[in-house]
Automatic annotation (TrEMBL):
Keyword annotations: Coiled coil
Keyword Nucleotide-binding in record: no
UniProt name for this protein: Transposase (IS3/IS911 family)
Record-linked InterPro entries: Homeodomain-like_sf, Transposase_8, Transposase_8_domain
Coiled coil residues, start to end: 26-60
Keyword Coiled coil: yes
One Pfam family from the record: HTH_Tnp_1
Residues in the signal sequence: none
Family: Belongs to the transposase 8 family.
MF (Gene Ontology): DNA binding; transposase activity
Single biological process term from Gene Ontology: DNA transposition
């Protein structure tokens, strides 16, 4: 057994741990587990991509749009997608206090 484990690059303890874990599973159950693990891996990768996309878009908002533009975008999100102020502000990286602060056009 040691030679096989060495050839595969795993320890004997790992082999016996895997054997104990998977010995009672049918091939169908093993396939289901593998499919689910692959699905989880793909979802984690997609989540990383979405988080990265969100950070990039928030950076664009921060650097290229005025606070008033962001206020209008919050209103747009609320009206179009029927979401609350808290979520809209979080998506656009604007604090709720800034969103609610009275904006006086004459002074700006």
């Amino acid at each position: 057994m040691k030679e096989i484990c060495d050839e595969l690059g795993i320890s004997e303890a790992t082999f016996y741990s895997w054997k104990k874990k998977f010995a009672g599973l049918s091939s169908e159950e093993g396939r289901k587990i593998k499919d689910l693990e692959e699905k989880v891996h793909n979802m984690e990768r997609e989540l990383q991509t979405l988080n990265s996309d969100k950070e990039m878009l928030q950076s664009v908002l921060k650097n290229f749009f005025t606070t008033n533009d962001k206020r209008q975008a919050v209103n747009y999100l609320q009206d179009t997608f029927d979401i609350g102020t808290r979520r809209s502000c979080r998506l656009l990286d604007i604090s709720r206090s800034v969103y609610h602060y009275p904006y006086n056009i004459e002074n700006h």
